[in-house]
Amino acid sequence: MGAFQTIYALSCELRIIKAKHIECEISGNLFVRCYFPQGKDRRVRLNSREIAPNQDPNWNESFSLECCGTENSIYRLEQEKVVFELRCRDKVPVLGRFGGSRLLGRGEILWKTILESQEMEVERWVAMDSRGRRLREGNKPPALQVGMKVRIPAEVAGAEKRRRARLMRWDECGCCRDSGRCSCSVYEILEVGAALEAF
Prior knowledge:
The chain is α+β, with helices and mostly antiparallel strands and 199 residues long. Helices cover 20% and strands 41% of the residues. The strands form 3 sheets. The chain has a 4-stranded antiparallel sheet. Strands 3-2-5-8 form a 4-stranded antiparallel sheet.
């Protein structure tokens, strides 16, 4: 029988706000495709709504994602990234179906950036790599304005802060003066137990 592991919920709010520096010669509708890591080389794919192309398209669209995992899986997110693709879907149907989409640019935000930001919230312009497409002289590559906000349960966030502080100054915690070894983890377990009893 496996060891008991607490499952935590993490919520993420994503806003696709707008894009800039879009070439006018695009035929078809624009949309944004986002990829979120799901663990073990898997990812979740989300598409924004499609809008008519113009130089500064505006989506102002929001998504909410909820995911569950162990404390370790939530912290493994720090090595992952959220990928954004600016795409164009051709209007001309092929064999009675709408055709595929073309990649116009690709950019990313590291989860570490979001998790270490003030209030775990960012709003920024993500520069898009034009994927080998040549830009006209004087033109800038496309950019996408996005906002992300992450909420992690307070007991997980508090335990992680204490763990990082202890690793940075392990000899200052004071618990190892008598025994010669650190026993802070015992107190953390008691704190988590007390927090769970409150529910």
